[in-house]
Amino acid sequence: PQNTSLNVNSEENEEERCLELGGHVGFDSLPDQLVSKSVTQGFCFNILCVGETGIGKSTLMNTLFNTLFEAEEASHYQNGVYLRPRTYDLKESNVQLKLTVVDTVGFGDQINKEESFKPIVDYIDTQFETYLQEEMKIKRSLFDYHDTRIHICLYFIAPTGHSLKSLDLVTMKKLDSKVNIIPIIAKADTISKSELHKFKIKIMSELVSNGVQIHQFPTEDEAVTEINSSMNAHLPFAVVGSVEEVEVGNKMVKARLYPWGTVQVENESHCDFVKLREMLLRVNMEDLREQTHARHYELYRRCKLEEMGFTDTDPDNKPFSLQETYEAKRKEFLGDLQHNEDDMRQMFVNKVKETEAELKVKERELHERFEQLKRMHQEEKRNLEEKRSDLEEDMNDFNRRKVAAETLMGQSLQGSSQPFRKDKKK
């Protein structure tokens, strides 16, 4: 019997044995231990707000958490889309929440919107990659690690009353495999109830026809099956945000005051803000965190590891060995490195040979040029020697003529002086 109980999970897949306890053991306090540990550790929740500038993202966040987050007014003249994360420490009763709100600054403000989704996708992938790198460290610290993975994307849809913009469809299609998306119609008090109902039907129809997978609240848990099923039918939520309090009757309520009347934020006949808050914070926050880790992060992790060459089974369908895979990848890497080194060495040798050949050609050309100049120099020298010889002969001939002329002149002078002496004697 003892051996049988130890092999309930063996390869024969024997059925588990249910045994009755003879008395109180104490492991029924495990949920209380988990709650105590979780409360001590605290929770984190990260919200990504995607929508055009001025559509009411900051106002809705302030309304959801009943506080005023610091926010800078964004202009409509951004050169591109960039994400601005802000992290806050909140506390309600004895529960601490590290909340990160990520705003998409400049989304939808450019003339060319083809690449507007790319910074958002890159940011989500970067958070996954950061967590994966921490998870793969030898010395990990996931217990106190600040998880920045996006748990929910609130996609703000402009209340046009017609249809979704192509930018909305493309962006949600790029994001639906990376994050939980909840579409919401912002500033829902700007269209009538009948138009709003038709707009909701139109949005859901376009999302389905374009294959966009938005987040569906889970219905497996009996405790939340009824409310989640009901809320899934209300998507997308039409919301109104406001932090201003207006006196209605004898009490102060958050509302927007217009000349024609008052729109109460927490009045379910006016908007779906209460439904959004209920689903997002009070019922399904932990499920959104689990979905992010178990679905979206696991998909990213699997694709990343497959790119690196890791698999669950080897080609022979044998269990995966991390050490063997590491050794194989290391061997492959060293082989590629050696191959690249050989290629670089051969390339260097070829370059040296080409350079030597070019230098030899240059040297031969210079030698030929030198020989040519040398011949020219010798020719000029020979010509100069000939001219010098001719000049010396001319000078010698001139000197001989000069001597002969001087001699002749002397003789003529002597001949002319003798008759003069004879005349004098006479």
Question: What are the main properties of this structure?
Answer:
alpha/beta, six-stranded mixed beta sheet, three-stranded antiparallel beta sheet, 10 helices, disordered N terminus
Question: What's the β-strand tally?
Answer: 9
What's the pLDDT, averaged over the residues? Answer: 87
Give the ordered list of helices and strands: HHEHEEHEHEHHEEEEHHH
Tell me the radius of gyration.
Answer: 48 Å
- The percent range for helix content is 40-55%
Biggest β-sheet description? 6 strands, mixed
Number of helices: 10
Uncertain stretches: 1-12
Strand content: 5-15%
Choose one word for the global shape.
elongated
- Amino-to-carboxy terminus distance: 188 Å
Q: Which structural class fits the helix and strand makeup?
A: alpha/beta
Strand order of the largest sheet: 2-3-1-4-5-6
Pfam families: Septin
Domain Septin-type G: 41-307
Family: Belongs to the TRAFAC class TrmE-Era-EngA-EngB-Septin-like GTPase superfamily. Septin GTPase family.
GO molecular function, one term: GTP binding
